[in-house]
Design brief:
Blueprint lengths: L9 H42 L6 H8 L5 H15 L6 H14 L1
Helix pairs in contact: 1-4
InterPro entries: FUN14
Family: Belongs to the FUN14 family.
Subcellular location: Membrane
Length: 106
Amino acid sequence: MELPDLTPYLGQITFGGLAGYAVGYALKKVGRLLAIALGLLFVALQLLAQAGYVEVDWTRIQRDVEPLLQQPALRNLWDRLLATLTYNLPFGASFVGGLVLGLRAG
């Protein structure tokens, strides 16, 4: 069995992998910054609540946020993100591979 010549697609595959890696790396860095920001916000709210400046209804916050954190909702968000990032790209497979590598490296 003879393998097809992939030379015409080599540039697309390379660019797709590099673009995916860059996006994955950036997403991980932004995710870390977002986690730090949310943590600092939580600490600030707790300090303000302890000092008596604000009253936080954590039960209501939990009730509002819990549906967003359910597994199907997160899976749907991930699927929509991948669909958006690989829309109309002929090198989608190499992009997704690079994205995974970038997420692991970041």
